[in-house]
Structure formats: structure tokens, C-alpha cells
Amino acid sequence: MSEYVFTPPAVVGLPVVGSQAKFAVRHVYCVGRNYVEHAKEMGFTGREEPFFFSKPADALVYVASGTQGDIHYPPKTSNLHYEMELVVALGKGGRDIPVEKANECIFGYALGLDMTRRDLQGECKKLGRPWEVGKAFDESGPIGPIHPVDKTGVIDQGAITLAVNGQMKQNSNLDKLIWSIPESISFLSSLFELKAGDLIFTGTPEGVGPVVAGDQMVGTFDGLGELKVRVV
Ligand code: MN
Fold this sequence. Notes:
This protein has helices at residues 36-41, 99-102, 118-127, 132-135, 149-152, 181-191; strands at residues 13-15, 22-24, 28-32, 51-55, 60-62, 68-71, 80-82, 84-90, 106-113, 116-117, 141-143, 147-148, 159-164, 167-173, 199-201, 209-210, 216-221, 226-231. It is α+β, with helices and mostly antiparallel strands and 232 residues long. Strands 4-3-15-8-9-12 form a 6-stranded mixed sheet. Strands 6-18-17-13-14 form a 5-stranded mixed sheet, with no helix packed on it. It has a 3-stranded antiparallel sheet with strand order 10-7-16.
């Protein structure tokens, strides 16, 4: 007799550049409104504290470097937005991690898209409801391979861009984060016990906007190559 009443879902594993072993994903955290100019375009001053939400690990869609991945235009929206983000992958965690120790938890970095049903998210905000339907839907997290920090070094700045159909839409720098990566890790660890396998989408710069079926998105971060995704 099987131990489970149905076959348990597979572990979500992301390839690691330069390794045969995959990175097993546990929890996917996302930082909201973490670039001043993006906070402003969303109707805020840019001085509010960032905050957190989550996506399920199986909402990730892995896209290998040098290839193009597909995501399906999701149901119940007519305003699907891209948000290009640098993703931090944790190799260890803890509770109440001091800012000065936070970089020691980093296993590596990846390019990610925090796809958003902006119309549903807007309704949630208006009605004071949770954001799941706007943020945590199927295929809402296209992501590239993990680049280990051993190879990249600790990243605290670098250009982040996104083009749609060859036209630049987002173009900023990680040094414009309101909360730096170590500060985000430290703050998150005061709310949740972080563990190896956790991912943190660190927030998107200004220039978010809609995509429709047929559009191609190409996101880049300095030194991490590109993430190419088509909406079908
Ligand atoms: Mn985001």
C-alpha cells in the first residue's frame, strides 16, 4: 500500500549553472513595491515600506538560457502585466538574520518575471482582499537558471531591463532598490523562518505594462544573460 492517497507532486527543481544538481525550491517570496519609481507609478510616494507576498513553487516556469519559454495568457484577466525582477535563491536560512549576515544565506541569483493579473490585483486592493488571484496564478513565475554566488560574487548593483517585442519597457539598476537584498532577507526572516530552497523575487522597477498573446518578453540582468518568454 502506498504511503500517500495520491502520487505526491514532484519537487520543483531549477537547474544551477555549472552543476548537475538542481536547486530544490521550497517557498517563493516576492517583495512588493521595492523600487521608488515603480511605487510612484502604482500611485504611492515611494517612501512606504515594501511588503511581501508569495507564489506557489509550481507557478514557476523554467526557461533555459538561450531558449524561449512559453506561458499561456491566464484566464479571467484582460490586463496581464510583466514585472522583471532579480531573484535571490537561498542556500540557508534562519530567523531574525542580521543585515550584516544576510548575504551569507545567498546560494545564487536568477532572472524572474512576476507576472501579474493587474485588473484582479486592483480589485483585491480596492476590496481589502488578499492578492493570490492577481499574483499567484498558474505559470505566473517564469524563471531562468540559478547562477551560483561563487561565480557571480555578491550582487548589489547592475542594470535590469525588460523589452517587449524588441522595445525597451523597463530599464533600471538594482542600486535603486528601496530595500537592498540583505535588508529584504533580514526583514523577511523576522516574519518567517527562511530555509534553503527559498526564492525571493526582489521587486520590479518602473515601466510595468500589459502583454497580450503573441508578445515576446526579453529580460536581462548584468552578467546573468537573458530570460526570453512568449505569451501564447
Ligand atoms: Mn513584483
